[in-house]
Amino acid sequence: MCGIVACIGTRPAAPLLVEGLRRLEYRGYDSAGVGLLRDGKIETRKRAGRIDALAALLAERPISGTVGISHTRWATHGPPTDMNSHPHLDATGKIAVVHNGVIENHAAIRRDLEARGETFVSDTDTEALARLLGQLYAEAGAHGEAAFLEALRRALRRVSGAYGLAILCADCPDAVFGARKGSPLIVGIGREEHFLASDVNAIVAHTREVAYLADGDLAVVRAHDFEALRMDDREATVAVSRVEHDAAAAEKGDFPHFMLKEIFEQPHTLRNALRGRLNPEDATSVLGGLNMTAAELRGVERIQMAACGTSWHAGLLGEMLIEEFARIPCEVDYASEFRYRNPPFGRNTLFLAITQSGETADTLAALREAKRKGARVLGICNVVGSSIAREAGGGLYLHAGPEIGVASTKAFTSQVTALALLALYLGRLHHLSALEGARLIRDLENLPGQIEEVLAQSERIRAIAQRFRGAASVLFLGRRFNYPVALEGALKLKEISYIHAEGYPAAEMKHGPIALVDERTPSVFLCPRDGMYEKTLNNLEEVRARRGPVIAVATEGDREIAHKAEAVIPIPAAPDHFAPLLANVALQLFAYHAAVALGRDVDKPRNLAKSVTVE
Ligand code: AGP
């Protein structure tokens, strides 16, 4: 996913844009560029590499002006080169475009334009849109905002795919144009300046008043106001809302990396996820945003979830919690698979989209497919006003604050917590007793303090991670509620340290993967004192019998495990269904410290982006 920032006001635009891009760099960091409009001319500066490379270019060759657009890129079409960086211009140089998303029919548009004499200078889909827009504007026979908007509508009707756009037109010096379809775009409302951005974090330092554009909206943004329009020329209705967090929440503070900050935020963010949602008197949860009545929820006979990556792992643990406590059949699919698997949808199926960003293209597409089949849909989401939150129409916000580190950490914990709250609510609508409900509430209330105890082990975990940082491959093994966290621990390690890692149900080792075990391949066993402890120990012994080194995440005070593992990470005693959340924090720290020991770019690991808005 790419990052877009645009501004129009009275302050120099270049520094504002570069600062905004830095706050979005986690969304994509292959290249960056700016375009400024002054005295009827557009000037661009763009460079492959991180924002620092662009800043250095601007220091060397500054451009002035108070109206501009900018972009940080996660490459989809064409390698990260200077020429493929955004903004992209039309043939006349009077139109500049920055784009988040994919123009799926760009090749056909490119062929048509080349046949009409256009000469492309980049490999990108975005250049096709910029040149098409330039052609249609030139054909308009008139200049200025009205003619440009008409050309923009005609161009957007020609393209298929997803876009969040910020556009400059040299004939319209008092406006920046925006358009949204499938990729987020937000208007920032300042006093003498306005903004466009793909993410509130880019502009929250300047304003917390924002308007979320919807798919099919266009925007004309000026220094003192903005207009939201529809493609069919009607006025769009956009609500102005206030961003929950301030700029500091999206900064590292005293931490060396966002990821470490977000790991250590989890006691606080988990309390946020619980705040106002526990009802001890009725031994249930209070879920205000579901937009479904108790009777509708009581009628739910099956739950289908869809998610990607870490959110899918949270869904897998949530599936176990819902089946354990609500006794409702539940299944989580990879969103990219769900939408083509075409599963049968019973009449009373509830669909849950689980996502931190609320912009993951596969998850959004899965949600739309579920709606098409008539399912009630809810979103379990962190980013307020995101596409999935809006299209679900109801659900649970995580209230975890911005998650900047590309590796998702606090979101996982809050997603599982939200699913546990849903399991409690649904359970108490059916057979779960008040006593059982009260016990689950107590388990949830204990979690933040228990996570603090795990965080206190960070130095011990760092020593273990440093000791094993040379491994070429690591196995993560757990049973029952620990299995989803084995998968998540493997994902964390591989995506930030680049060490290959696999997660498996511990018992599954016997069916093939144990062939991977040797003295160079550590196995991380999740073996808290739970109902699967003895069985898990058997699997641990099978690995040890083949000289495989063992790292055990075990309940503190477990003396037996000390003799069976090269390294032990203790976690507080906790119920079977929540001990994995504590183990997961330990594995987040394990992955973090291994990556730091290997000198990796922890917050912006290679090839990745924070939210994948392409399919
Ligand atoms: C997790 O560490 C990864 N960054 C990635 O798997 C992520 O969880 C996935 O892309 C889903 O993102 P979402 O939660 O924003 O939908």
Structure report:
- The chain is α/β, with parallel strands linked by helices.
- It has three domains: 248 residues, 4-Layer Sandwich (Glutamine Phosphoribosylpyrophosphate, subunit 1, domain 1), CATH 3.60.20; 205 residues, Rossmann fold (3-Layer(aba) Sandwich), CATH 3.40.50.10490; 147 residues, Rossmann fold (3-Layer(aba) Sandwich), CATH 3.40.50.10490.
- The strands form five sheets. Strands 3-2-4-1-10-9-11-14 form an eight-stranded antiparallel beta sheet, with helices on one face. Strands 5-6-7-8-12-13 form a six-stranded antiparallel beta sheet.
- α9 packs parallel to α13 and α16 packs parallel to α19.
- The chain is globular, with a radius of gyration of 25 Å.
- The site of 2-deoxy-2-amino glucitol-6-phosphate has 15 residues, from α9.
User: Major β-sheet, in short?
Assistant: 8 strands, antiparallel
Strand order of the largest sheet: 3-2-4-1-10-9-11-14
Give the domain tally.
Answer: 3
Calculate the mean pLDDT score and round it.
94
How many alpha or pi helices?
19
Shape: globular
Strand percentage: 15-25%
Instruction: Examine the coordinates and then state which fold CATH places here, giving the name of the CATH topology of the largest domain.
Output: Glutamine Phosphoribosylpyrophosphate, subunit 1, domain 1
Query: What is the architecture of the largest domain at the second tier of CATH?
Result: 4-Layer Sandwich
Relevant CATH superfamily of the largest domain = Aminohydrolase, N-terminal nucleophile (Ntn) domain
State the share of residues found in helices, binned by percent: 25-40%
CATH level-1 class of the largest domain: Alpha Beta
Uncertain ranges: none
